[in-house]
TrEMBL record:
Residues forming coiled coils: none
Family that this chain belongs to: Belongs to the UPF0065 (bug) family.
Superkingdom per UniProt: Bacteria
Origin organism lineage: Bacteria, Pseudomonadati, Pseudomonadota, Alphaproteobacteria, Acetobacterales
The protein's name in its UniProt record: Tripartite tricarboxylate transporter substrate binding protein
Organism: Neoroseomonas soli
Length: 322
């Protein structure tokens, strides 16, 4: 009788453990999320938020490992070489869809060797100009760029970076040549932006908003479907007169391609639940990003659309990696 009582008392704990693992038995050990950037910054912060939420739901430790290098390829290759069981994933950014067209002879095939799990976030960009220049609206800036005797300069953090490609997309959308100027980071570009030597940058809302509020830069348009809550006075590109123009980055989880579908679906569901929580959504808003939580199928379609869009611009503009 005593033995029976002990077993009955243990049953809820056993059931809870099985529930956390899921019917597929996943996970059975520590889950790793590799991040292609150094600690700090938005991408790293997003990974740690998701890892904390997944750990609570999966019943296993979830750790974030920073693997910067190779425009994201170092982290992605490590995941491709890992066991395809869902215990090792990578949080990629837009460079994942850029690399196949930008860099020949990669050690992996990013779009074939990694399976989409879920898009974690969309990261809209804001189109910013110097307050030292005449244009006060996007329409005025477009007219200013078209009338300029020499191509206006715009800032980016590197050849083939998201900001570089977004700048090329913008120049093509308005029918005016513009020249990319490469800096080691946004902070280094600010003096030239403040002075008006560099006319434009496309960067995250979180990064640009303090300088817009100080009056040193002007936010001309949010390159997204909706205005940003913390910058509701800045119109969207549709509202500002450039309909259909979108520019942004994104982040999402990928796993090795042979990872069982049941595991991919489980991680997607749990991640989507993390992203639905009010506290998570507020943190994302603070970071200037939009929570997504799409299905593996939807994320796969999104990545391929993005890759084709980048491929076309890279080819037509003759963009080469540093």
């Amino acid at each position: 009788m005593k033995r029976r009582t002990i077993m009955l008392g243990a049953a809820p704990a056993v059931l809870a453990a099985r529930s956390a693992r899921g019917q597929d038995g996943f996970p059975t050990r520590t889950v790793r999320i590799l991040v292609p950037v150094a600690p700090g910054g938005i991408t790293d912060a997003l990974a740690r938020l998701v890892a904390t939420g997944l750990q609570q739901r999966l019943g296993q430790t979830v750790v974030v490992e920073n693997r910067p290098g190779g425009n994201g390829i170092v982290a992605s290759e490590a995941v491709v070489r890992s066991e395809p069981d869902g215990h090792t994933m990578v949080l990629v950014i837009a460079a994942h869809a850029i690399n196949p067209s930008l860099t020949p002879n990669l050690p992996i095939r990013p779009l074939e060797d990694l399976a989409p799990v879920t898009q974690v976030a969309g990261i809209p960009l804001v189109l910013v100009t110097s307050a030292a220049l005449p244009p006060r609206t996007l329409a005025e800036f477009v007219a200013y760029a078209r009338a300029a005797p020499e191509p206006l300069l715009y800032a980016s953090s590197g050849a083939g970076s998201g900001a570089h490609i977004a700048g090329e997309m913008f120049a093509r959308a308005i029918g005016a040549p513009m020249q990319n100027v490469i800096y080691r980071g946004t902070a280094q570009s600010l003096p030239d932006l403040f002075s008006g030597r560099v006319a434009m940058i496309l960067d995250t809302v979180q990064t640009m908003l303090p300088h817009i509020r100080e009056g040193r830069l002007r936010g001309l348009a949010i390159c997204a479907d909706q205005r940003w809550p913390a910058a509701s006075d800045i119109p969207t590109t549709d509202e500002a007169g450039l309909p259909g123009f979108r520019a942004g980055s994104w982040a999402g989880l990928l796993a090795p391609t042979r990872t069982p579908r049941v595991v991919l679906d489980r991680v997607q569901r749990e991640t989507a639940d993390v992203l639905r929580q009010p506290e998570t959504q507020q943190r994302f808003l603070d970071y200037g990003v939009v929570p997504v939580g799409s299905t593996p199928q939807a994320f796969d379609a999104f990545i391929r659309t993005e890759a084709e869009r980048y491929r076309r611009v890279i080819r037509e503009a003759g963009i080469r990696a540093d």
